[in-house]
Design a protein that fits this description.
Layout lengths: L8 H27 L1 E3 L5 E3 L3 H7 L2 H30 L7 H10 L6 H11 L6 H8 L10 H29 L3 H10 L3 H29 L3 H6 L11 H11 L3 H32 L1
Length: 288
């Protein structure tokens, strides 16, 4: 007896597809259109081809901003992934401490990005901020407005405070899914704590850590609001990441062609790096 296919479910998905078309596809096509054309105003456009892409890729400004992005993301991942795993390993697995720790870990994630930037902007000020006041009292010359190292340190500490909780929650979810039988077998074999982590906990957390790695990379590589609020890309251009440079080009200078080309290059870099990370980590997982 032949089965009758029911395609009515597509009508349930149709509103989502229409919404995605208006919120993603159409703006993307607009950006593509601007990236290959130039205008003198009055909606008069003429073909520019790949001129804007060549201009962006030959610009030292672009490569400097890209280098800052890569360094920032590398530092963030190096700190937050191990720190998140360490915190998750030491969180309670049973009792009243579980909901308390989970709520405390979730609190930083509930704060909007612009509010996080404002909090740390005030917190680090040398005149009214608690951090600036304490460091000045200890004799440490701290000023994120004028000192490049202080600006970077502030952004890194701020991001670690804000987003390590995400890694903690994902790693904790992987840990609590491990059956007790694994731990009982390890205890019978006399396995050390390092052996339990190396051969039981870490393999079971690999998939959630892959998700955490990709999420934190994409978010740190696209960071905009926090450094814009705290440093505005300064001092000088020391914290001007690609996102800030893109906004300056599009809104500050109103160079729509170069801004569109830069945004597409930016998007392709994120897509390519995420694909490379995902491929490498999943291939390694399959081999093991």
């Amino acid at each position: 007896m032949e089965k009758t296919l029911n395609n009515k479910a597509w009508f349930m998905v149709l509103p989502v597809l229409v919404l995605v078309a208006f919120s993603a596809v159409i703006p993307l096509m607009t950006v593509v259109n601007y990236s290959v054309q130039d205008t003198f105003g009055n909606n008069a456009f003429f073909w520019a081809g790949t001129d804007w892409f060549v201009q962006v890729l030959r610009s030292d400004r672009f490569w400097d901003a890209l280098t800052r992005n890569l360094i920032f993301s590398a530092i963030i991942l190096t700190i937050e992934i191990p720190l998140g795993v360490l915190i998750a390993l030491n969180m309670p697995k049973k009792g009243l401490g579980v909901p308390v720790c989970l709520v405390l870990m979730s609190l930083p994630l509930l704060i909007p990005w612009n509010v996080v930037g404002t909090i740390w902007q005030v917190f680090g000020r040398v005149d009214i901020g608690l951090l600036g006041y304490v460091l000045a009292g200890l004799g440490i010359q701290y000023n994120y407005v004028n000192n490049v190292f202080d600006a970077w340190a502030t952004l890194i500490v701020m991001d670690v405070w804000h987003w390590t909780s995400l890694v903690v929650l994902l790693a904790y979810a992987g840990l609590v899914s491990i059956p007790d039988a694994y731990y009982q077998a390890a205890k019978i074999d006399g396995a050390s704590r390092w052996a339990v982590f190396r051969y039981i906990q870490l393999p079971k957390m690999k998939r959630v850590l892959l998700i955490a790695f990709l999420l934190r990379f994409m978010d740190s590589f696209m960071i905009y609001t926090e450094p814009f609020v705290i440093t505005g890309g300064g001092p000088g251009n020391s914290t001007t990441f690609l996102s800030i440079d893109l906004v300056k080009t599009a809104i500050g200078q109103f160079d729509l062609g170069p801004a569109a080309a830069l945004s597409l290059i930016y998007f392709l870099i994120i897509l390519l790096l995420s694909w490379i990370f995902y491929t490498v980590m999943t291939t390694s997982d399959a081999q093991n």
